[in-house]
Design a protein that fits this description.
alpha+beta; 6-stranded mixed beta sheet; 8 helices
């Protein structure tokens, strides 16, 4: 596998017609064989980036390169069919009048018939659909259709695979299992891929590198661990996972003083221009500890299988969220003890309000 940047977007901006830019100054890169995800709310520009990579969207500035070859600049665009880029869409877009086997073989007309048949069999085996080769799309479930769409997209051996919300029409449980399946499949095939989604579970199941977008800008391009534990902006902290901001004062580069006492860890001073900060506390930073001086009343509970997510109101009026092993079962209104142990102290400049509640 070659090293270096396989896909490179440099300072990419794009707009529709004469309107304002829908994507502004986006730079990101993927190595060969890496899987990337662009994550963000509706209308943030993520699909426009896919359209630009595939050649269906012109650039107003910047460039797109694949394997060292420039595909797009504002003055020159290589046509979509010359890019050897595959696409998987939200609605799977299978041809209803073709069998599953013929759907997968649709882009293989340059192969002789024996080679084409062999490639179809290999791919249907790969996605676990060989037994359905003679069926038609209307006879398949959503998950089966998604597997066939994937097999069809990778059949011509694209150098890059683009996926636009590929799991959005599937139920939650299937999305997650299929996300891990697709990741294994692409890794086994050595395919470089980039997916756009509004669902962070999809992104974390699939991506080696994940970008969070807001209003046309790429806020952070990173691995999932850093997005969760070291978000570089309040937007990313809000968008990824659950959590609460609590008031704090930076004592030194390892310590923040809060209403819950001093918290020690690796202080990551992001956007903090004074010692008066708000500290991001994730639910997994708050452990159940009946010997702790910090006590809170349970206001909400959400069962998560092995763990329960409790939202607590503490005696000093602040809110905390805590993940507790689900065999320690408590009811709304109960008081429990918790301790804060955050290795990654993510601090932001304190806003006018004392405490900012993150989404749950």
């Amino acid at each position: 596998m070659s090293h270096g940047k396989f896909l490179e977007l440099a300072n990419l901006s794009a707009s529709y017609g004469k309107g304002a830019a829908v994507v502004r100054d986006v730079s990101l890169s993927l190595n060969e064989g890496e899987l990337g995800c662009i994550l963000g709310p509706s209308g943030c520009g993520k699909t426009t980036i896919l359209r630009a990579i595939s050649g269906f969207q012109t650039l107003s500035s910047g460039s797109i390169s694949l394997a060292g070859k420039v595909l797009s600049t504002p003055h020159k665009t290589i046509s979509p069919e010359q890019r050897t880029v595959g696409m998987v869409f939200q609605d799977h877009a299978l041809f209803p009048h073709l069998t599953i086997g013929d759907n997968v073989g649709f882009g293989l007309n340059k192969l002789d018939s024996a080679e084409r048949r062999s490639r179809i069999v290999t791919l249907l085996d790969l996605v676990g659909m060989q037994a359905h080769a003679k069926k038609y799309p209307h006879e398949l479930s959503g998950g089966q259709s998604q597997r066939v769409a994937l097999a069809r997209a990778i059949a011509p051996r694209p150098r890059l695979l683009l996926m636009d919300e590929p799991f959005s029409n599937l139920d939650t449980e299937l999305r997650e299992s299929l996300g891990y399946e697709v990741r294994s499949l692409l890794k086994a095939s050595g395919i470089t891929a980039i997916m756009v989604t509004h669902d962070q579970n999809d992104a974390f199941a699939l991506g080696d590198r994940i970008g969070v977008m807001s209003e046309g800008k790429l806020m952070q391009w990173d691995n999932s661990f850093n997005l969760y534990h070291a978000p570089n902006s309040r937007f990313v902290a809000n968008f990824i996972g659950d959590g609460i901001f609590v008031r704090g004062r930076i004592i030194d580069d390892k310590t923040v003083d809060t209403n819950f006492g001093e918290i020690k860890g690796d202080v990551i001073n992001v956007d903090a221009d004074s010692n008066e900060v708000e500290v991001l506390i994730r639910p997994d930073d708050v452990t159940h500890d009946e010997n702790s001086a910090i006590r809170g009343q349970i206001k909400r509970k959400a069962f998560k299988g092995a763990q329960t997510l409790y939202t607590l109101e503490t005696s000093n009026g602040e809110t905390l969220m805590s993940l507790v092993p689900s065999h320690d079962d408590y009811e709304i209104g109960d008081m429990i003890g918790v301790a804060i142990s955050a290795d990654h102290l993510v601090c932001f400049t304190r806003t006018a309000s004392n405490q900012s509640r993150l989404k749950t």
